[in-house]
TrEMBL record:
Assembly: Interacts directly with activated HRAS; a RASSF5-STK4/MST1 complex probably associates with activated HRAS. Interacts with KRAS. Probably interacts with Ras-like GTPases RRAS, MRAS, RAP1B, RAP2A and RALA. Interacts with RRAS2. Can self-associate. Interacts with RSSF1 isoform A. The RSSF1 isoform A-RSSF5 heterodimer probably mediates the association of RSSF1 with HRAS. Isoform 2 interacts with activated RAP1A and ITGAL/LFA-1. Binds STK4/MST1, inhibiting STK4/MST1 autoactivation.
Span of domain Ras-associating: 87-173
PROSITE patterns xrefs: RA, SARAH
Lineage of the species this protein comes from: Eukaryota, Metazoa, Chordata, Craniata, Vertebrata
GO cellular component: microtubule; nucleus
Name of the protein: Ras association domain-containing protein 5
Intracellular or extracellular location(s): Cytoplasm, Cytoskeleton
Domain of life: Eukaryota
Gene3D superfamilies assigned: 1.20.5.110, Phosphatidylinositol 3-kinase Catalytic Subunit, Chain A, domain 1
Primary localization class, coarse: cytoplasm
CDD domains xref list: RA_RASSF5 (cd17220), SARAH_RASSF5 (cd21892)
GO molecular function, one term: zinc ion binding
Keyword Metal-binding tagged: yes
InterPro entries: RA_dom, RASSF1-6, RASSF5_RA, SARAH_dom, Ubiquitin-like_domsf
Amino acid sequence: QNVTQTVEEEKPEPPTVQEIKQKIEKYNAKVTNCLLMKLNDDGTYTGFIKVHLKLRRPVTVPAGIRPQSIYDALKEVNLAEMTDKRTSFYLPLDAIKQLHISSTTTVSEVIQGLLKKFMVVDNPQKFALFKEMRKDGQVLFQKLPLTEYPLYLRLLAGPDTDVLSFVLKENETGEVEWDAFSIPELQNFLMILDKEEKDKIQQVHRKYERFKQRLQQTLKEARGKPG
C-alpha cells in the first residue's frame, strides 16, 4: 500500500562537525560498495544518492539530439539549447540514476541536475522529489521541500535503500496546472488519452466476445443433451 504524507516534520538542530564526522564513520562502516561519504576540511561532505524515476507522463526533450557525452558534461555544454525542435517520450519506468552530490546540494538542485542529465526541457516545477520509506508493510512517500538536503537524509538513514530511497515524480498539487504545459505537450496528452481510450474499448469488446462464445458453446452443448 502506498501512502503519501504531506505533514511537515520538525527539523532538529544542525549537527556539529564532530557529530557529522561520527555519523559519516558509522555510515561508511555499513557501506558494502565503494560509494562512501567523504568529509571535507570546511565541514561539508560529499556522497552518493540514487534516485528512482517514477514518471507517468511523457517528458519534453530536444528532437534529434544525441546523448550527452563526457566531453559535453565536462565543458557544461547544454545540448538542449542547440535546437528549438521538441519531442515527447516516456522515460523508462522506475529507472535509477546515481548522483554524486554535496551536503549543500538542495532538492531543487537535484531535480534540475536530473532533468539536465536526461536533457528534459520541461519546467522543473512540474517535478518533485519524494523520500520513500517502508513501515509496517506500507510504502510511505513524503514530498521533500526544495530547500531540503538529500545527502543529509541519506546520512541519517544509512546506506540501506530499503530504509530510505529517493523518488522523482510529477509534482501533484491536487489539480493539474495545465497552464504550465506547452501546446505540443497538451496535444501529446490528447493523443495518449485517445490511444488509451481505444485500447480500453478493445479490451471490453474482446472480453464480451469471449463471454458470448462461451455462452453459445454452452447452449449448443445443452441442446445436444437428452431432456
